[in-house]
Amino acid sequence: QVQLVESGGGLVQAGGSLRLSCATAGRTFSRYTMGWFRQAPGKEREFVAVITWTGLSTSYADDVKGRFTISRDNAKNTVYLQMNSLKPEDTAVYYCAARDGTMPVIRALSSGNEYPYWGQGTQVTVSS
To answer: What are φ and ψ of residue 30, in 5° steps?
Structure first.
């Protein structure tokens, strides 16, 4: 079992920055591909970013490319999401998710169904 705990959310003005963290406990963090997802009120959960277990590959949703950066520190069992140039439409609950990176991908790493482990979420609110 993998336990995920997000932190770093809060209220920020448009154009500002936040860094989310997701600390893990349990099995070996370094073998897990880590993703960030978000869900705004009244909307479906959507993919934000992913970093593979090797750390060699990252991918982003189109609307966050160039603004958000995902990274990982295996020594600290933590994945980060640096969010810059925040917009009101980035307001959502942000969730980190984990999957065994050595397992085959059924659909795509942008699909939440690929991730069996989820954190409780952290609220990000961007004011205009």
So the answer is: -65, -15
Query: Which of the 8 DSSP states describes residue 104?
Result: P
| CA atoms of 125 and 13, how far apart (whole Å) | 8
pLDDT tens digits, 70-115: 999 999 999 999 999 999 999 999 999 999 988 888 889 999 999 9
Q: How far apart are CA 82 and CA 69, in angstroms?
A: 5
- What is the biggest distance separating any 2 CA atoms in the chain, rounded to whole angstroms? 42
At 8, the amino acid letter reads: G
Mark residue 121 as left, alpha or beta (left: phi above 0; alpha: psi -120 to 50; beta: remaining).
left
Distance, CA of 26 to CA of 58 (rounded, Å): 23
> Residue holding tokens 């920055």?
17
Type of residue at 28: T
Task: Order the strands of the 68-73 sheet from edge to edge.
Answer: 2-7, 18-26, 78-83, 68-73
How far apart are alpha carbons 121 and 96 in whole angstroms?
7
**Rounded Cα–Cα distance for residues 29 and 2 (Å):** 9
